[in-house]
Each structure stands twice: as structure tokens, then as C-alpha cells.
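Morning F.,

Quick status update on the modeling queue. The single chain you submitted on Monday has been processed. Sequence for confirmation:
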Amino acid sequence: MNNKIYHGGDLQDAEARFGRPDAGWLDLSTGINANAYQNTNVSESSLTQLPQNAALDTLLAAARHYYRVGESSAIAAAPGSQSVLQLLPSLLDQTDVAVIGPTYAEHAKTWSDSGHNVSIAEDIADTNSANVVALVNPNNPDGRIFGLPVLLDLARSLTARQGLLVIDEAFADTDPATSILPELRRESVLVIRSFGKFFGLPGLRLGFAAGASDLVEKLQHRLGPWSVPGPTIEIGTRALHDHAWTEGTRRALAVRCDALLRILKTAGLQSIGGTTLFQLVEDVRAPDIFTALGKAGIFVRRFPENSHWLRFGVPCSDADLERLQRALYCIKP
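C-alpha cells below.
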């Protein structure tokens, strides 16, 4: 398996390819909310003291409420959801793992790197022989949603044979109804949540793992003490309690995503799926569009494994939407 995985957000790579734009970069390559949570002041003690257990407990309580984690499930905080992906495969004996794809490539890579036998399945129906099934819901990059009844049936089937269902819900904040967490009743399921994408603060490095208590406890033990910094705990707790911001942001993202879809359609580009944080386009002109946008200072997500795909993050303002519209207008059909 090729260990090189391309991620969005690498503006150093963008500048190596296209130079530094006079107007600065419009980075649409990540699927991260460009209108970040702004109440990010922190206390001096969070910087000068080790992270306090009481503060971490408060964060976990806020996360349990925000993500609607039931009493039968455990929850742990981690320094980013990627750290959960990295650690999880090492906690299980080597086994057959099915990753439903195409999806976020780190899932297959982390399981494979730990010696598991990894296969890529197109759908849940193709995972019958696997002891571990991993999927992303809503999926990245195409926004595919797996219905809760299907997921619960799969979870119970895997639980009955001592297997595990791993669900990456990194983009579920935009549509909480897609989350399996409120429905869990001690099934063998581990749900991974990302704080940074929806709240627009990936640099805080905050994620959560919730679900099967024994596995969450193993993860917490492996993470060790002080794995989440004090400033991250303060800001994360505040943001997870800020329901007015959360609801307003969901509405604003939906409006801007609709505007993005109209711009793409006007440019002759058809979205094949996405969320209100990103849209995936399939077009034979994708490599040329990627280059033309890059030269205009707009960085979008390309996919070396599928040269006809481009993913567009949702711009944060009318000005950025207009900038994208102008650049696409200059591209010949």
C-alpha cells in the first residue's frame, strides 16, 4: 500500500506549485469551517499549569451532552481525532478489517500499518467476513450517508461475533441526525468525533472517542495523562456549550453551501455529493481546473487516485464566493 497520503490545507505545497498569490490564498482544500469559533481567550492558568482533571471532566460532560452520548457509552478526549485513528488499530489483535470506501485514506493506512488485513469494500453488504468494519458517516469526500437502521443492524451483527464497528463522524456536526451515538445500547461500536472541523479550530487538536466502554478505557490509558492541553480544554468546553453559535453556524453553512452549488452549476460543474462543509465535483477537466484555480490563488482538494475529482470547501464570505465565481468564469468549458 502506498504510504503517501495527500491532505488538504498544505499551502506550502500550493505555493511550491503556483507561487504566492498577490491577494493571498483562498484555501478551499480542507472541508474545515472557514468561519471559526471566535471566543478563544484563555486563562493564564491554562498556560502555566498542567491540565486539571476537573477541567477535563467538565469538557467531557459538555461533549457528552453536545454529541448526545448515552449513559451506556463511555467518552474520552484526545489531541485530535487523527490520534484516535492512529492508536485504535494497535489496541486490537490482528484481524480482517473492511474499510468502506472510497473514503478518508488514513483509515485503511492506520489499520494496515498495524499489521491488520485490510480490504476496501464498496458497501456494507460486502463486509460480511470482516471482524472490524470502519466507515465515515457522512462520508468524506462524497457526503454519502449510511442510515441508522442499517448501521445498528451491522453493529449488532458485529457485536454478536465479538467484532467492532468503527464510525468516523468527523462531519456529522452539520447534520446531528446522522449520528449513531444516541442509539447505542452497549453495542461494540467506537465513534470518532472531530472538534476542529465544524468549529473551524483544527489547530487546537481536539477530538473524542465514544462508545464501547472497554475500548474507550484502553484508548484513554494509551493516551496517558495531560493528552489534551489546558487552553484546548477551556476553548472546547466553551464552544460545546455555545448552542446559539452552533445553530447559527449550521444555518449559515447551509446558505453558503447553496451559493457554492449555484456557482459550480453555472460553471458547468456538477456536484456528486458532499455536506454543507464541502462539495465533491467529478469532471474530466478536473486537472486543468485545479491548475487554473491554483494560478488564481484558489486552492482546492485534488485526488491523485481519481484525477476527475475535485473537492471544494465552502467559502466563508460573499467576497470569497465572488472570487471563486470570477476564477471559474475564466476557465474555458
